[in-house]
């Protein structure tokens, strides 16, 4: 089946090279039973890829279930996935089948796979390697034939290095990796997606679809879209419902697009006069200055501490100087009118 036909069938909008590649891999692997690991930021459409893979597979007439691993409490995730026996834990008044039992013959999509507890990871590894599982509270081994598609917005390889994710499970899951690109990596698709959403919401709310002028389109493209396609869809819906004027200008669009996150780096005010060379032109220089200043402060503190160790009588002088500096700072002006009291000096051992 051609790629465009796949897009039309599943409502995939866009022509970005990264998107086409990810979609091509999904189509190629669909008719196999290989485990797939879909990675990408939140809101890029990872679950849509899992539906595509299942729908094009030999399991398409069998059950499909999507499980958000991050939304299930750690104490109940094993029961949800593998089932439990009556009386196996408090509240287990009846035995219950888990997803791997009810979806037998079909496909299970494990979203946010990185949130699985290590114990559950071991159980999942056994399913992937042997097709076996044991209900919570049971000793009976059961068989299952389920294809697993996993997804994550985390760096699982980094998780393995930190001991948060089993390395053997990572390599078992990532038999076929698929990376879904973020929206800012497919900027050329943003106007197409917005137009599609605008038409859809116009039909839903019985109104005319909103249209963007060129300046508004440029603003849409320049925005960083941390929430990806999900955020774009939400904004398209807001505009469709709240905007009486269906021709949207850049200024009108600004009311719906949140400001980009501000730079959290400290602001460095450039000196004037003979010190104009200290006008830092980029973040790297700002960081260098911060690191050098921190190193200087640490060095001075270390030197002061060593001097106090050599001569304990300096401790009292240091405390007196600190108290004097504290008074000059007028702490009551900096802490909402609360006057702070100096702590009594302690002997230096």
Report on this structure:
The chain has 349 residues and is α/β, with parallel strands linked by helices. Helices cover 46% and strands 10% of the residues. The chain has 15 helices and 9 strands. It is flat, with a radius of gyration of 29 Å. 24% of the residues are buried.
The tally of beta strands, per DSSP, is 9
Counting structural domains, the number is: 3
Overall mean confidence score, pLDDT: 83
Q: From the coordinates shown, what is the CATH architecture of the largest domain?
A: 3-Layer(aba) Sandwich
Q: Which sequence of strands runs across the widest sheet?
A: 2-3-6-1-7
CATH superfamily of the largest domain, by name, is P-loop containing nucleotide triphosphate hydrolases
What is the radius of gyration computed over CA atoms, rounded to a whole number of angstroms? 29 Å
| Low-confidence parts | 261-282, 331-349
Alpha-carbon distance between the termini?
Answer: 79 Å
How many DSSP helices? 15
In percent terms, what proportion of residues is strand?
Answer: 5-15%
**Helix and strand composition category:** alpha/beta
CATH topology of the largest domain, which one?
Rossmann fold
The coarse silhouette is: flat
CATH class of the largest domain: Alpha Beta
In which range does the helix fraction lie?
40-55%
Largest sheet: 5 strands, parallel
What is the ordering of alpha helices and beta strands?
Answer: HHEHEHHEHEEEHHEHEHHEHHHH
Task: Summarize the helices and strands and which ones pair or pack.
Blueprint: H1 3-10, H2 17-30, E1 36-39, H3 46-55, E2 64-68, H4 77-82, H5 99-102, E3 107-111, H6 118-130, E4 132-134, E5 141-143, E6 147-152, H7 156-161, H8 167-173, E7 176-179, H9 190-204, E8 211-212, H10 214-222, H11 228-242, E9 247-248, H12 250-254, H13 283-310, H14 314-329, H15 331-334
Parallel strand pairs: 1-6, 1-7, 2-3, 3-6, 8-9
Antiparallel strand pairs: 4-5
